[in-house]
Design a protein that fits this description.
heterodimer, A: about 325 residues, alpha/beta, TIM Barrel, 2 domains, 8-stranded parallel barrel, 3-stranded antiparallel sheet, 11 helices, globular, B: about 300 residues, about 30% helix, disordered C terminus, metal-binding (chain A), UbiU (chain A), Ubiquinone biosynthesis protein UbiU (chain A), Peptidase_U32 (chain A), iron (chain A)
Chain lengths: ~325, ~300
């Protein structure tokens, strides 16, 4: 069971490798990347440096080229695939059929993983993508543990699951909420609730209002901790109730599911967070390295350590964590 | 241009569904009808057999009928239902998941690629055409310009006559699907004890921001646009690009709007959109936006 850690920058990548990540995943500094954030990600030069660093430690590097290519600029995506292969990366993470077909034809020997953005949740969908020679599928964060188990037992395909980090509540790759409000979505622009559309208004009474392209996402009292206005984590009204209608600001944490994921032969545990700091990546990687080593050594005696929980909750959105969809009750 | 009626996205009682389609059968403004449950496998007012009965009646009334499949397929049981739907054989299937595309491709049956299939460029489009796609429903978030870009590419020129282009043009747009049921959550119920409460909300549940704007509509595991999408003023600019315009069944006045669309296919009348309507995506704006003037993007 591999530990796969996020790297939005070289320092984050080095932190992940130094703390024992088996592999890291990165993206390019353009709209081919579903985490296209200002000031982050890799260009051709530092991608090569990243590959050298990772390979010197005998670990692996995955590159996510996981938005959907635009019609008038398809070559940008094609060139991203070629550049990643040229830089010597180990794995391409792809979602768009046109790029999967291109990579299968032109780079048949490079390992390909199906991105979570392709939203493959069932055996028939996974079978569809086999024709492109994919070796692994990254599962959307919508499946329960019994559903993950059923897939793992019936599908002859490596499965990668999200283990920790921000929680996407919608089936990835099929969520247009962000473009509905801002015109930019993960599929088209590699962005969700982009920062350029965020506005904070402080009222005379100390209330802080967050808006996304003019739409009020939340309103915080002076004593409340204000979170980034990701639109699915806003407080809205339904009927007479004001609450987090879609999802609370919280992070996914599967530390307690580790023995089960290990037993079900999950190939890789993915840590979310390419937008996070090197210090965050360092702390999270250290904990997950310890946890995975422990579960491999003795799955029956594994238990979540209190010190892990403390660090994990201090690094989580709203200081809360959840098992998300893995747990039936969450639904 | 043809006018289609998408699948009913909400959970309506069986009698209401049957009455609705009796009216559809009598309407001369609808050419194509999509039938089926695309949102939640628990909804059980109608089963495949019931939809097939309705399909036969509509076909006798001269409509083209297509069966729409579930969008988020999470369990083996849902895939079995999908196989039954494709195997029923008489009607073309609208595939709303790549699993459905795969099964149709394997069985060699033609299909419609629904709006939740991620087809954003000419190469993917061509791939789907080769797999048997005969109609492409463009993802809701794309614009006229994006569509024109795709259709003008060389690789599409040779195959343009092999498929229709369909555009979601009226109704609350499906924007996201989740593991979580938001309607059950809004009633403080667990998803597995939802009591099929969606049936109490024939047009979904309205979500408003703290300053009073309708941002979303909750429809079970589906989140829809708060504004009703309405491209009635854009129809005249669709000719040559779009073959089918889709209206999504609303709880009221669906067929009245179908008539208005029919009468406005060549333009002529400029409708003043309401406060809770939008046309942004088509005009390359945020989906919730509404632009009254239509002349600026004349091609």
């Amino acid at each position: 069971m591999e530990l796969l850690c996020p790297a939005g920058s070289l320092p984050a990548l080095k932190a992940a490798i130094n703390q024992g990540a088996d592999a890291v995943y990165v993206g390019l500094r353009d709209e081919t990347n579903a985490r296209h954030f200002a000031g982050l990600n890799f260009n051709k030069d530092n991608l090569q440096e990243a590959v050298r660093y990772v390979h010197a430690s005998k670990r692996r590097i995955h590159v996510a080229i996981n938005t959907f290519a635009h019609p008038d600029n398809w070559a940008l995506w094609q060139q991203a695939v070629d550049a990643a292969v040229h830089a010597g990366v180990d794995v391409l993470i792809l979602a768009d059929i046109s790029l999967l077909a291109y990579a299968a034809e032109h780079h048949p020997h490079v390992e390909k993983h199906l991105s979570v953005q392709a939203s493959a949740t069932n055996p028939a969908a996974i079978d569809f993508y086999r024709q492109f020679g994919i070796k692994r599928v990254v599962l959307p964060r919508v499946l329960s543990m019994p559903q993950v188990r059923a897939l793992s037992r019936t599908c002859d395909m490596e499965l990668e699951v999200f283990a920790f980090g921000s929680l996407c509540i919608m089936a990835e790759g099929r969520c247009y909420l962000s473009s509905y409000m801002t015109g930019e979505s993960p599929n088209t622009a590699g962005a969700c609730s982009p920062a350029t559309f965020v506005r904070w208004d402080e009222q005379a009474d100390g209330t802080l209002e967050s808006r996304l392209n003019g739409v009020m996402i939340d309103r915080f009292r002076e004593d409340e901790k204000a979170g980034y206005p990701t639109l699915c984590k806003g407080r809205f009204s339904v009927g007479d109730e004001l609450y987090h209608v879609l999802e609370e600001p919280t992070s996914l944490n599967t530390l307690e599911l580790l023995p089960e994921l290990y037993q079900e032969n999950i190939a890789s545990l993915k840590i979310e967070g390419r937008q996070r700091s090197p210090a965050y990546v360092e702390k999270i990687t250290r904990i997950w390295r310890q946890a995975i080593d422990l579960v491999k050594e003795s799955p029956d005696h594994y238990a979540v350590r209190e010190e892990w929980n403390q660090v994990v909750s201090s690094l989580s959105e709203g200081c809360q964590t959840t098992l998300g969809a893995y747990h039936r009750k969450w639904k | 241009m043809k006018i289609s009626l998408g699948p009913i996205l909400y959970y309506w009682p069986k009698e209401k569904v049957e009455a609705f389609y009796r009216d559809v059968a009598d309407s001369s403004d609808i050419d194509v009808v999509y039938l089926g449950e695309t949102v939640c496998p628990k909804r059980s007012e109608l089963f495949l057999k019931d939809y097939l009965d309705i399909a036969h009646q509509l076909r006798e009334a001269g409509k083209q009928v297509r069966l729409s499949t579930m969008t988020l397929l999470e369990s083996p049981g849902m895939v079995r239902d999908l196989v039954r739907c494709i195997d029923s054989g008489e009607f073309m299937v609208e595939a709303n998941d790549m699993g459905a595309v795969f099964l149709a491709q394997q069985k060699g049956v033609p299909f419609v690629a629904g709006a939740a299939i991620n087809c954003y460029n000419q190469h993917t489009l061509k791939y789907l055409v080769n797999a048997g796609m005969q109609c492409w429903v463009m993802p809701v978030e794309l614009s006229r310009e994006w569509l024109a870009d795709i259709l003008s590419q060389d690789v599409v020129q040779d195959i343009r006559s092999c498929f229709d282009v369909e555009v979601f043009a009226f109704g609350h747009m499906p924007l996201a699907w989740s593991a979580r049921c938001f309607t059950a959550r809004s009633e403080n119920r667990a998803k597995d004890q939802c009591g099929l409460c969606c049936i109490n909300y024939p047009c979904g549940r309205s979500v408003t921001s703290q300053d009073g704007h309708q941002v979303f509509i909750l429809n079970g595991i589906q989140t829809q646009s708060g504004h009703r999408y309405n491209l009635i003023n854009q129809l005249q600019h669709m000719h040559g690009l779009v073959d089918v315009v889709r209206l999504s069944p609303q709880v009221e006045d669906t067929l009245l709007w179908a008539k208005r669309f029919r009468n406005n296919l060549n333009g002529g009348q400029n409708y003043c959109l309401g406060e809770f309507e939008s046309n942004g995506y088509w005009l390359k704006l945020p989906g919730m936006s509404r632009m009254e003037s239509v002349s600026h993007y004349e091609s």
